[in-house]
């Protein structure tokens, strides 16, 4: 059978606008709601606040190399912790307990199974509860489990965001400058830079006038604020996807924005300037612009990546 261009166009239109895509979106929403229900069920049983469990799950989802297609929960407790050193992998809870394993039965069937979402959440909550369930207790438990300060900080930040908004459905984004402002940008990631030694440009420069408001692009927590000889007055925000957003060369900060604050897309955090390339207060060594950088953490290291595609998508979405 030969397909004409009109047939192909009609088929493409159908695939894009038929109920297939709507069904996929509905499935994602249903899965998110099912996960929240699991988090809150575990909270009711263990007294572990749901947003800590949700934050651990989100963090592990972000660093996961392979998805678990048959599970909602991404938390992956190593076998040696789950079963105990002397247990060859038998899932009966009483055998795991004797072997000093962590695995616990969350759904009442007598088995502590690593591929059972309720068992996984109950086990994680039970283990953290050995330290306590307040903020400082949870931080100590996370440190003993992950042995990495950035991981603990990221999980606590995600939990803080979930607690404030009461949900994990936080997909909204925004462009960092007002669309009505006079601005321009192109892909400058990887370009050479000379100040302070040879290095690459780890971001995209968005040129605009002094004082144009700068906005948060995602839900996140302000992790850093202050002067840097390269970035001038800058601010760093870490989001729920293990991304660190770096806003540099600011003219100043929005009043009331401090380290530890939760922000959402559209929150004004400062304004465009030309600060940097010298001691605190240095300004005017280049035209005013916002340097926007993005960094990814995989649980072991953090690296810069090109933010330009994200900026273009956020700009397009904001215009629509």
Overall mean pLDDT: 89
Indicate how many domains the architecture comprises.
Answer: 2
Nearest-angstrom radius of gyration?
23 Å
Spans where pLDDT lies below 50 across 5 or more residues: 1-18
Element string (H = helix, E = strand)? HHHHHHHHEEEEEEEEEEEEH
The end-to-end span amounts to 38 Å
3D architecture notes:
- This protein has 320 residues and is α+β, with helices and mostly antiparallel strands.
- It folds into two domains: 5-165, no CATH class; 183-319, Distorted Sandwich (Glucose Permease (Domain IIA)), CATH 2.70.70.10.
- The chain has nine helices and twelve strands.
- Strands 1, 4, 5, 6, 7, 8, 9, 10, 11 and 12 form a ten-stranded antiparallel beta sheet that branches. Strands 2-3 form a two-stranded antiparallel sheet.
- The relative contact order is 0.10.
- Residues 1-18 have low confidence and may be disordered.
Question: What keyword list fits this structure?
Answer:
single chain, 320 residues, 10-stranded antiparallel sheet, two-stranded antiparallel ribbon, alpha+beta, 2 domains, disordered N terminus, Glucose Permease (Domain IIA)
Secondary structure: elements and pairs:
Blueprint: H1 5-17, H2 19-46, H3 50-63, H4 79-83, H5 93-98, H6 117-129, H7 135-146, H8 149-165, E1 184-185, E2 192-193, E3 199-200, E4 204-207, E5 213-215, E6 220-228, E7 232-239, E8 243-253, E9 262-263, E10 268-272, E11 289-297, E12 302-305, H9 308-319
Antiparallel strand pairs: 1-4, 2-3, 4-11, 5-10, 6-7, 6-9, 7-8, 8-10, 8-11, 11-12
Compose a concise summary of this entry.
With about 325 residues, the protein is of the alpha+beta class. The protein is about 40% helix and about 20% strand.
């Amino acid at each position: 059978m030969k397909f004409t261009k009109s047939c192909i166009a009609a088929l493409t239109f159908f695939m894009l606008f038929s109920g297939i895509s709507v069904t996929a979106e509905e499935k994602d929403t249903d899965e998110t709601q099912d996960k929240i229900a699991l988090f809150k069920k575990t909270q009711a049983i263990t007294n572990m606040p749901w947003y800590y469990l949700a934050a651990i799950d989100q963090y592990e989802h972000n660093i996961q190399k392979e998805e678990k297609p048959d599970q909602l929960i991404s938390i992956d407790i190593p076998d040696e912790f789950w079963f105990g050193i002397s247990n060859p992998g038998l899932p009966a809870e009483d055998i795991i307990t004797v072997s000093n394993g962590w695995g616990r039965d969350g759904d009442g069937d007598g088995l502590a199974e690593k591929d059972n979402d309720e068992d996984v959440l109950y086990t994680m909550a039970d283990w953290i509860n050995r330290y306590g369930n307040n903020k400082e207790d949870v931080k100590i438990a996370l440190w003993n489990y992950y042995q990495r300060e950035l991981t603990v900080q990221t999980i606590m930040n995600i939990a803080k965001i979930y607690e404030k908004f009461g949900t994990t459905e936080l997909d909204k984004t925004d462009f960092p400058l007002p669309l009505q402002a006079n601005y321009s940008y192109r892909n400058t990631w990887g370009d050479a830079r000379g100040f302070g030694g040879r290095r690459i440009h780890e971001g995209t420069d968005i040129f605009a006038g002094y004082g144009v408001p700068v906005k948060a692009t995602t839900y996140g927590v302000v992790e850093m604020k202050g002067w840097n000889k390269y970035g001038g007055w800058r601010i760093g925000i870490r989001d729920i996807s293990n991304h660190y957003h770096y806003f540099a060369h600011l003219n100043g900060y929005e009043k009331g924005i401090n380290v530890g604050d939760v922000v959402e897309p559209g929150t004004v955090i400062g304004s465009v300037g030309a600060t940097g390339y010298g001691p605190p207060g240095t300004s005017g060594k280049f035209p005013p612009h916002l340097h926007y950088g993005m960094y990814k953490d995989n649980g072991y290291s953090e690296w810069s990546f090109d933010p330009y595609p994200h900026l273009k998508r956020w700009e397009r979405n904001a215009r629509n």
